[in-house]
Amino acid sequence: MARSSSASARLHAEIDALREADLRRRRTLKWGAIDADVLPAWVAEMDYPVAPAATEAVIAAVAKGDLGYPVARAYVEAFARWAWERQQWRVEPAQLTPVADVLAGIESALHTLTAPGDGVVVLTPTYPAFLRILKKLGRRLSECALLDGPDGWRMDFDAISDALAGGAKAVVLCHPHNPTGRVWSRAELTTLAGLVDAHGAHVVSDEIHAPLAADFVPYGLIAGHSVTVTSVTKGWNVAGLKGAVLVCQPETARVAAAIPPHERQRASVPSLAAGAALWSDDGGWLAAIRDYLALTRAELRKWVDDRPGIRWHTAETGYLAWLDVRDAGLGPDPAEVVLDRARVALDPGSRYAPTGSAVADGFIRFNHATSVPLLRTMLGRIGDLLDSVQ
């Protein structure tokens, strides 16, 4: 425990010391696609140092010239151990298929489990790529907006039931939910599973943010009608190392069977090596990052509480905040105003649901996965803007 606490303290000190100039040297999307005077709180990347276990695995693969076509055995076996040890979810390596990334896995699952013209339930606000996948596949969007209640965001089970009764064949579940940060409870998942079973449909569960949740129930523990896709990329901040794992139940094994061999080769050897290392032993990196994200989440919570024009149901995990700024005086496109006048890049809520959505328009998604000092600078800029418009 003392060693773990010491490693966590060192990582936290390293994060606190992050310099804006160093972050701007990165060539990733978060920092590389913005102007030099803009601070980024938009795309889902963290500013934190890479876990040494991932760095060492990638360097070792390159040093050995291990850059050919991948064999995923060690990767899927490591995930199976991690799922059992961390989530009490027993999956066999034979149920696991490597894919290029989580979106590729979701697309493969929907392609097999549904047909062109079928309805697919999506819980909005939602990760915008889900909407693009449905359009690409020719599936019909069955939008079920989350309910915004005094205790936070929750599923509208009546709307989901109606959509399934109307012919929707699948539900795309984001768990933990992007952008609200909800971690769906066992009771909620069980209720959803009952509705899906009653209509002979399936669930495709995106659990890419799950490693960031200390207390998490995988959907695959609840129901056999599901396909789960997950990865190390969000939890350990290695999105550029393309690779994910698709988990099929016996009832959905045809999804894996339909994935052609060339699709299974699209996750590179370095990405699978890093994934296997992180699933196996990350040296306490993830636990330390969870603790640091609790600090930045609390910092954001304190700031919101001082701003009467902003509402936020505090996220239960991760680093994404879904802020309701409809009463903040920023107009119909608040993210654009913040970018133009405060020079902070945010994700506009309008991207997360069809046009005219009451759960997305007038919202912004704020990524607080940076250092506390940089976060305070961002919030100070936005606060100055809000003071000038109210």
Automatic annotation (TrEMBL):
GO MF terms held by the record: transaminase activity
UniProt keyword list: Aminotransferase, Lyase, Pyridoxal phosphate, Transferase
EC number in record: 4.4.1.13
The keyword Lyase is assigned to this record: yes
Top-level taxon in the UniProt lineage: Bacteria
Cofactor(s) demanded: pyridoxal 5'-phosphate
Limits of the Aminotransferase class I/classII large domain: 69-369
SUPFAM superfamilies assigned: PLP-dependent transferases (SSF53383)
Matches recorded under Pfam families: Aminotran_1_2 (PF00155)
Protein family according to the UniProt entry: Belongs to the class-II pyridoxal-phosphate-dependent aminotransferase family. MalY/PatB cystathionine beta-lyase subfamily.
Matching PANTHER family: CYSTATHIONINE BETA-LYASE-RELATED, PROTEIN MALY
Name under which the protein is recorded: cysteine-S-conjugate beta-lyase
Organism of origin: Saccharopolyspora taberi
Lineage, highest ranks first: Bacteria, Bacillati, Actinomycetota, Actinomycetes, Pseudonocardiales
